[in-house]
Amino acid sequence: MAKEKKKGGFIADFKAFISRGNVVDMAVGVVIGGAFGKIVTGLVNYIINPCISLLTGGVELDQVKTVLQEAVKEGEEIVKPEVAILWGTWIQTIIDFILVALCIFIVIRAIAKARAIAEAKENAAKAEAEKAAKEKADAEAAEKAAADAEAAAKAAAVQDAILEIRNLMKKN
């Protein structure tokens, strides 16, 4: 059996892909995430780091480094740049990561709680509907049982009347 060729081609497939809701949602998330990352970096650089600098006696975190090789200069020109381990910058990056992770955790936790509350309300509504349906079915069953009992009583009364009539006819 030969494979059927898809109609539409590359452009139609791309159009279908890009117009899906989850792709657009993902793009919005990436843009907002990038902006959020800049906000967190600003928080670390402009608020947290100055506070750390106060605690460390004026040493700025982004200036903390271990120089492995000094820069080589010929006059004012740098021939060979400095080679250093930038511990302070690395610590800033770790603080950025921790803050972003904390914020994402808080948002995800809030969403999970909101979903749990909505699910609990939905389950309660379903349980209430099921309870009402069961009560209705029980009431209908009770009505049917009462009607059946009444019909059985009438049938028994009719049979008793027939037997009484037969007994009267036998006596006469």
Describe the protein in words.
With 172 residues, this protein is mostly helical. Helices cover 76% and strands 8% of the residues. The protein has three helices and four strands. The chain has helices spanning 9-19, 21-55, 87-171, and strands spanning 66-69, 72-74, 77-80, 83-85. The strands form two sheets. A two-stranded antiparallel ribbon has the order 1-4. The chain has a two-stranded antiparallel sheet with strand order 2-3. It is rod-shaped, with a radius of gyration of 41 Å.
SSE order and pairing:
Layout (H helix, E strand, L loop, with lengths): L8 H11 L1 H35 L10 E4 L2 E3 L2 E4 L2 E3 L1 H85 L1
Antiparallel strand pairs: 1-4, 2-3
Helix pairs in contact: 2-3
> Rough shape?
rod-shaped
Tally of contiguous helical segments: 3
Using the CA coordinates, give the radius of gyration: 41 Å
Helical content (DSSP H or I, runs of 4+): over 70%
CATH architecture: Orthogonal Bundle
The CATH homologous superfamily is termed Large-conductance mechanosensitive channel, MscL, domain 1
The pLDDT mean sits at 87
Q: Which band does the percent of strand residues land in?
A: 5-15%
Oligomer class: single chain
Largest sheet: 2 strands, antiparallel
CATH fold-type name: Non-ribosomal Peptide Synthetase Peptidyl Carrier Protein, Chain A
Order of helices and strands: HHEEEEH
Q: Within the largest sheet, what's the order of strands?
A: 1-4
What is the gist of this entry?
The protein has 172 residues and is mainly α.
